[in-house]
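Prompt: May I have another protein with tokenized structure?
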Amino acid sequence: MSPLTLGRVTFTPDRNVDVNMEEMSGRRTEGGETLYNLVIKHVGRKHAGIYMCQIVSTTTFTNNITLNVLGT
């Protein structure tokens, strides 16, 4: 288990894995909000598994997503 990304920095050598970040406009929160999307191009069975999104501030929020790859 190792991080794929931290903010805008990508740690994986897999060039098909990237993070898309989008600043959300029109939000009434201080400092705005950012939408993060994990993008995997040319998905294969090697990408299957559990992915964790973790946000750390005054508290820690963690969300686990299971990616199942069907087919080739």
Observations:
- The chain has a mean pLDDT of 82.
